[in-house]
Amino acid sequence: MQEINTLWDLLEAAPADRTALIVPDAELRISYGALREQVSAAADLFASAGIRPGERVAMALPNGVPALVCFLAATIAGTAAPLNAAYRREEFNFFLDDTSAKLLIVPPDGGQEAREAAAQRKIPVASVSLEAGGKLEFSDLTRRGSAGAPTPEQVALVLHTSGTTGRPKRVPLMHRNLAISAGNVARTYALSPDDTSMCVMPLFHVHGLVASVLATLLTGGAVVVPDKFSPFNFWRSVQDYKATWYSAVPTIHQVLLARAERGGERPAGAEHLRFIRSCSSALSADTMRRMEQSFGVPVLQAYGMTEAAHQMASNPLPPHERKPGSVGVATGLEISIVDADGNHLKIGEAGEVVIKGPAVMGGYENNPEANERSFTDGWFRTGDQGVLDEAGYLRLVGRLKEMINRGGEKISPLEIDDLLLTHPKVAEAVSFGVEHPSWGEEVAAAVVLREPVPESELLAHCKAHLAEYKCPKKIYVVDAIPRTATGKIQRSAVAAALKPAKG
User: Fold this and answer.
1) What Cα–Cα distance (Å) separates residue 99 from each residue in 67, 85, 366, 371?
2) In the chain, N or C terminus with fewer CB closer than 10 Å?
3) Which residues constitute the domain of residue 332?
4) Same domain for 384 and 432?
5) What is the Cα–Cα distance from 75 to 157, expressed in whole angstroms?
């Protein structure tokens, strides 16, 4: 695998005539040569609009070729700041201000709330569309000059933490952070020019950008880029384009699994897959087992976060062992476990997961207080609680701020989630702590059901497999569990929504 230092180096890694992107909706294939031309031309347009290294190009675009080309072009001319196109005006107000965006790119139709937020801030707006033959058409931009070559230390991408535990923080990722992370993903899964990935994750987050796209382009493979995930079209695209792997959050896996189990047979197209990757949220051991049974390929759970430019650990490919309930072994960085004072703990002891390596950001932007809290002796504190075993496999217990404290007993919500998911009538589950006058906190849970089941049966299921103090005392049935745009469960939102219903 060719060593790269910037995302432009990554684009030059494959022969010009190889297929880089496949667009099912338009039945279109774009070669590496054409992709390089499009990215270079768009970077020149951004530079001509006044974008300089470090200045932010905001994008509110759906998944597709325009989103990918604009992302790559922005990393060359300046810094990419992709935003969720589903944000409302108030959210665009915050993110455009917080990133100091100098230019906003939107689709020709739609994006009205983003346009209004930009207009209020006097931020220039341009639109981009995919025309026949795969060429991009930009409005309101004229090419007058050229963008210079980026450097490894140039900030290529700025994203925000999910904000589930407080105000979102800005994460600046340099070209070298992203290049190293893409290389780590490619090595972990032995990606090659023969691989084709199905990109079903949003392209405003590192999961989709780094794992599905950059790691594939680095190795000269092809990326299938539908405009959105559809469980009805997914396997047809896998079959038509012979996709060899895909990466997704458990929510997407569960949707595909439910359809496969209803059908009673392996989906057509699954025979082309080498493996399935799961990341960005916990995958239960039961879901992993059922996926492997239904799809006939290994399911590899990984561990990533924005601050590490995505992947930090993963279960390996066969013949190496993959451990259900584990996020695998470190990939290209160091992982350790520390106590509250930053002391490194022994194998098998639970504490906070800390990481160190060249893919990890140097610090949050303009946030010295967060950096003081988040770094200890050169290690980044993830906020996750976990345990390392003797073979180096990491098992996550939960977010430190989400641990349930019942009378001094610390309870992992993930353990309760996983247990509830083993009940055949439970489709989704989330547990959380609620206030209790004697214990401080008591355990509760919310579930989405496949079919009706009495609460008493679910409570009995928990009591049969968990210590009494861990068992939920109340289980709510809900229509849906709130998640972030990237698939992470929002436990605090569930607890807050159900708080008035407590007796």
Assistant:
1) 18, 16, 11, 18
2) C
3) 327-399
4) no
5) 7
Residue 373 CB contacts under 8 Å (≥ 6 apart), including other chains: 381
Structure tokens, 201: 């994750």
pLDDT (tens digit per residue) in 245-276 = 999 988 899 899 999 999 889 999 999 999 99
- The answer to the question of residue 320 being in a domain is no
Q: Of 136, 132, 98, give the one whose Cα is nearest residue 117.
A: 98
Task: Say which DSSP state 54 is in.
Answer: T
**Exposed e or buried b for every residue in 207-246, given b needs 16+ CB within 10 A?**
bbbbbbbbbbbbbbbbbbbbeebeeeebbebbeebebbbb
State the average pLDDT over residues 454-477. Answer: 92
- What are the beta bridge partners of residue 305? 310
Structure-block tokens of residue 374? 């988040």
Q: Are strands 196-199 and 245-248 parallel, antiparallel or unpaired?
A: parallel
With a cut of 50, say whether residue 30 has pLDDT above it: yes
468/409 Cα distance (integer angstroms) = 12
Cα distance between residue 257 and residue 242, in whole Å: 19
Lowest mean pLDDT among 60-69, 352-361, 403-412, 470-479: 403-412
Asked if residue 262 and residue 196 are part of one domain, the reply reads yes
